[in-house]
Amino acid sequence: MSTPAITVPASRSRQAAADGRVVVKQFSLAQIVVVWAAATVPMGVFAWIVAPALADSFNGAGNVPMAKALILCLSAGLIWQLALVAGLVVLEQRSLRWPTLREALWLRSPRSPGTQRVGGKLWLILIPLCALFALEALLPAFGVPENRDFGSFLDSDAGQSFLDGNLGWFALILAFFVLNTALGEELLFRGFLLPRMNSVFGRGDWAANGVLFAAYHVHVPWIIPATLLVDTFALSYPTKRYQSAWIGIAVHSVQSIFLTAIVLARVL
Question: Which end of the chain is more exposed for a tag (fewer CB within 10 A), N or C?
Answer without folding.
Answer: N
